[in-house]
Design brief:
The protein has 7 helices and 2 strands; from the N terminus they run H-H-H-H-E-E-H-H-H. The protein has 162 residues and is mostly helical. It has a domain at 24-125. It has a two-stranded antiparallel ribbon with strand order 1-2. Helix 2 packs across helix 4 and helix 2 crosses helix 5 (113-125).
């Protein structure tokens, strides 16, 4: 079996590197939009792997937004973000079975509160773009639909479809 050299992977990954980028300034979120997203965070939300509480965003929105803005612009202009922004898995005991049993646990995905704020700002700014490119079945991207609406719509379709 042929093993690729280090140069092979370096050259292959180089093809994904963006050499030029052209973005209209109107497409980038503004600092005030990031600050508004910080203000809208509910206090008492679970922290992600970074351990930063949601109260940092809620009660210090101006300072938090100032620190996050350059990182958010980097994410927007490069089109990629750190793997740690994807969150982590936290096992939680269901409280129904023996704690020694693996089936007694469920897992939840915890993302950083700071990352959630940046994602919310970017999604809100780009909502117009995604609305035009989404299929009708992609209700989660629409502002007027809550996420469970898609489930209800699919259940109704299954019930009444011929």
């Amino acid at each position: 079996m042929h093993k690729p050299s280090g140069n092979f992977w370096r050259n292959h990954l180089e093809t994904f590197h963006h050499k030029e980028l052209s973005i209209d300034l109107e497409e980038l979120p503004m600092l005030c939009e990031l600050e508004a997203a910080c203000r809208s965070v509910a206090a008492g939300k679970a922290s992600g792997l970074d351990g930063i509480p949601s109260e940092i965003c809620k009660y210090c929105p101006t300072v938090t937004a100032l620190h996050l803005y350059s990182l958010m612009l980097t994410i927007c202009t490069q089109g990629q973000e750190a793997l740690s922004h994807k969150g982590g898995i936290l096992p939680i005991w269901k409280g129904k079975q023996d704690k020694a049993s693996c089936s007694a646990y469920r897992s939840i995905l915890l993302s950083s509160n700071l990352v959630k704020v940046m994602h919310k700002t970017i999604r809100t700014k780009q909502r117009g773009c995604t609305k035009h490119s989404c299929m009708d079945s992609r209700l989660g991207a629409e502002l007027v639909f809550q996420l469970f609406s898609a489930g209800i719509k699919s259940e109704l379709f299954n019930e009444f479809a011929p």
